[in-house]
Design goal:
Strand 4, helix 3 and strand 5 form a beta-alpha-beta unit. The chain has two domains: 168 residues, Rossmann fold (3-Layer(aba) Sandwich), CATH 3.40.50; 97 residues, Rossmann fold. Strands 1-2-10-7-8-9 form a six-stranded mixed β-sheet. A four-stranded parallel β-sheet has the order 5-4-3-6, sandwiched between helices. The chain is α/β, with parallel strands linked by helices. The protein is globular. It catalyses: O-acetyl-L-serine + hydrogen sulfide = L-cysteine + acetate. Belongs to the cysteine synthase/cystathionine beta-synthase family.
């Protein structure tokens, strides 16, 4: 029995792909992060950032938190901040899906929408200005070591345990890069042979949750030496794969997960054998007001 909703963060299922791979010598697993209570992989980082800051005394219930987000981190922060009775303002581009905005507000957060013309970079600039000029405190998922450490403590060990140490390749979309940094650090400690594959969008592609950052906005927690290979996917490929995952595998997820699995299949084409684990970042229901599944 769980005593708190927070006890349900992590230990998400891993399932085997049943239709997408044809090579019998390669196994593809999906790590279903939508089974976290907030609906995405970001629950892990949000909980570790807030809990660690509270434990250190960096924040308390009088602190006014602010964070820029493209969606999933904001939902996770809103949920966990509410549980700890913390005040938080979440800043996101105005073209974010209404499900995301409404979910954050349902958890009690203040949501500020910035111009879609400046994207998530503009939201980050707005939040940083509030920190500088108005005394707000930013957890800053892009530079906070508690982000990637959440995955070092949980995601990596779960993958190693659930594959019984047989994982050969880990594939993850790269946004704030916390998932891939922490999981890579843990898996490489278990075996230097494990290959870490990051996913980025092709030029001109817009895939929520996957970014190719301008140099000045590159997350400070990102260490390129922890990624063995980067595979690019297009918006069209990620969208088509999200639809295939739902129809063929019964895995209802967002576009970033479609990107992750697209990259995993591209990787599989280059292998004779292997055990690939791909992150399914979130659930598809927070994209229903978009055109993803039309």
């Amino acid at each position: 029995m769980s005593h708190s909703i927070l006890d349900l963060i992590g230990n998400t299922p891993i399932i085997k792909s049943s239709t997408l791979l044809k090579n019998p010598n390669i196994t593809l697993y999906f790590k279903l992060e939508g089974h976290n209570p907030g609906g995405s992989v970001k629950d892990r980082a949000a909980y570790n950032m807030i809990k660690s800051a509270l434990d250190r005394g960096d924040i308390d219930q009088n602190t006014q938190l602010i964070e820029a987000t493209s969606g999933n981190t904001g939902i996770a922060l809103a949920m966990i901040a509410g549980i700890f009775k913390l005040n938080i303002e979440l800043v996101m581009p105005e073209n974010s899906t209404k499900e995301r905005v409404q979910t954050m507000r349902a958890y009690g957060a203040k949501v500020t929408l910035t111009s879609s013309d400046v994207g998530i970079e503009g939201a980050r600039d707005y939040a940083e200005a509030k920190v500088k000029n108005e005394g707000f405190v930013m957890l800053n998922q892009f530079a906070n070591d508690d982000n990637w450490k959440a995955h070092y403590k949980t995601t990596g060990p779960e993958i190693w345990r659930d594959t019984k140490g047989t994982v050969t390749h880990f594939v993850s979309s790269m946004g704030t890069t916390g998932t891939i940094m922490g999981t890579s650090t843990y898996l490489k400690e278990q075996s230097t042979d494990v290959q870490i594959v990051g996913v980025q969008p092709t030029d001109e592609s817009r895939i929520p949750g996957i970014r190719k950052w301008p140099k000045e906005y590159l997350p400070k927690i990102f260490n390129p030496q922890k990624v063995d290979q980067v595979i690019e996917v297009s918006q069209e490929e990620a969208t088509a794969m999200a639809k295939r995952l739902a129809k063929e595998e019964g895995v209802f997820s967002g576009m970033s997960s479609g990107g992750s699995v697209t990259a995993a299949l591209k990787l599989a084409e280059t292998l004779d054998k292997g055990v690939i684990v791909a992150i399914i970042c979130d659930r598809g229901d927070r994209y229903l007001s978009s055109d993803l599944f039309e």
